[in-house]
Amino acid sequence: MLIPALAVALVTAAIPGHFDQPQDGFAHPWTTLRESNPYWANLDPAPINTALRQLREFQKPQANGKPLFAGAVTMYVHDGKIVTHDRTGYAVLYQDQETQLPERERVPMQKDTIFDFASISKLFTSIAVIQQVEQHKVDIDERVATYLPEFGVNGKENITVKQLLTHTSGLEPFIALWKLYPDVPSRIKAVMDVKPKSTPGTTYVYSDLNLITLGELVHKVSGKTLDQAVKDGITKPLNMKDTGYNPKAKDRTAATEFQSAPPRGMVRGEVHDENAWSLGGVAGHAGVFGTAKDLAILGQTILNGGTYQGRRILTEHSVELMLTNFNQQFPDNAHGLGFELDQRWYMGGLSGPGTAGHTGYTGTSFVIDKASRSIAILLTNRVHPSRDWGSVNPARRVVTDGLANALAVKANGRQWRATTSGGTLTADRPVEVFVDVDKGDKLTIQHWDGTQWQDVRTITTTSRRWVPTEPVKSRFVYTKAGQYNGRGVYVHARGNVTAEGWSAASR
Q1: pTM of the entire structure?
Q2: Confidence band of 16 (pLDDT split at 50, 70, 90)
Q3: What are phi and psi for residue 379, nearest 5 degrees?
Q4: Residues contacting residue 416 through CB under 8 Å, at least 6 positions apart
Q5: 460, 463, 469, 473 alpha-carbon torsion, rounded to 10°
Q6: How far is CA 176 from CA 18, 127, 209, in A?
Q7: Is residue 327 classed as helix, strand or coil in its secondary structure?
Q8: 216 in Cβ contact with 149 (< 8 Å)
Q9: Which of 30, 163, 295, 439 is 20 to 30 A (C-alpha) from 498?
Q10: What distance, in Å, lies between the first and last C-alpha atoms of the chain?
Q11: Which residues pair with 356 in a beta bridge?
Q12: What contacts 454, CB < 8 A, 6 or more positions away?
């Protein structure tokens, strides 16, 4: 008996643990986080364990003689289940820019260590802005100067709220406010007075000034300081008890950098970003501290369409807008209203048009994959003791790849996975293919014309789904050209198969 198409969709949508069955819409609004493990979530534990082992290797000296980070906390969530909550290394390891503390004075990393989120703070500011939109105090297409008249000078008169949220305002990335101006009022005025570097709306330039401005906008229209607005609108209703600005539990925080300019020494329990520090620790672009568990609550709230445990902080429509790409004219810089979208350089194998997240300069990473209803969090203190020791991006991709590879890609029969660029697979009776790769990678399907193999079509993505192929003898050639990895290239076939640079795959 054939199952109607609608019934098939309902059945497959309910199966957890699959990468090749993307979910539509939001998770059930009552989905809450609960302790679990990969087995109970229908995930393969091997890729997760491999990722955790690699993270520990990153604590050892790398090619430049320096570790990537002193310590880290990792969390994986799938379908509301916390399948991994791991810690490694130290929250405090150094006493200055080079010297490690004696063993007895080091502070081991804990699962509930509080991290400086750095630019992940921008998401909190963006949510606070959208909450003002819901209260009809702000229109995202309105000029910022309507709400902040002091901003509408020096060529910024027509910059919109949406352009600030999507980093298309034309403002420069950064001004050394802490160094160039003597106090908070003069620093804020400098942001209000700045001239655009490019015509608003014509370029994508990631800028802290966009979010500093939005923080001031929230203050102006709500009558609350940004920290109070974030507390009242986000962290308190969601019971994110360890998240906020200027943390009181400094002994639970991970240390960041040893700073000599400004002369702050080893920074711990205060925001690392110098500009945010000079603004009293509360700014639109940086300043929020929190734990992996709290960040997962925010992630599940987004997956639920703006609600968690019966407390709604955003409407579903608002969440959809935050996850909608408004930067289609800048294809490598997909961006919603606050969230970055489809950025494989840190989202790795989880990356896709509906994958959202943000990173932080201190070594933090937050990825929400709506299609698989998954969350990947990596919190590190990579700037401890120096920001110049290297990039944490390899570790970010290891984490997201670990979760992506734990999700199944499984045909209803024998399947092979491409393992080598240029590798070929010849199948008498191919059935379907699955392609999820980096930009530049491709799968070429060839048919025999009696004399030679001829290219029939090239596939760069099948949008996380198996798609049928021609039921004739075919050759499949995988070419790797991109820098990063996706979930991979698979072929489901029957009959005789000859593989070179491909391997049999079970999921």
Answers
A1: 0.95
A2: confident
A3: -115, 120
A4: 425, 490, 491, 493, 497, 499, 502, 503, 504, 505
A5: 40
A6: 46, 26, 11
A7: coil
A8: no
A9: 439
A10: 27
A11: 341, 368
A12: 446, 447, 448
DSSP of 16-77: -SBSSSPPPSPPPTT---EE--TTTTT--HHHHHHHHHHHHHTTS--TTSS-S-SEEEEEEE
Alpha-carbon distance of 427 to 451, in angstroms, equals: 17
Q: Is 252 in a helix, a strand, or coil?
A: helix
Give the helix/strand (H/E) hosting 125: helix 121-134
Q: How many CB atoms lie within 10 A of CB 317?
A: 12
CA gap 84, 44 in Å, rounded = 12
Q: How far is 96 from 266, CA to CA, in rounded Å?
A: 7
Phi and psi torsions of 272, nearest 5°: -70, -45
Task: Name the nearest CA neighbour of 361 among 286, 436, 425.
Answer: 286
434 — phi, psi (to 5°)?
-135, 125
**Which residues 6+ apart lie within 8 Å of 59 measured at CB?**
67, 68, 69, 70, 71, 72, 88, 89
Do 127 and 233 meet the contact criterion of CB atoms below 8 Å apart? yes
- Identify the bridge partners of residue 47 per DSSP, sorted by sequence position: none
3-class secondary structure, 471: coil
Partners of 415 in beta bridges: 492, 505
In tens, the pLDDT along 474-493 reads: 999 999 999 999 999 999 99
Is-contact 106 92, C-beta < 8 A?
A: yes
What is the rounded CA–CA span in Å between residue 82 and residue 73?
Answer: 13
Q: What is the pLDDT of residues 336-353, one digit of tens each?
A: 999 999 999 999 999 999
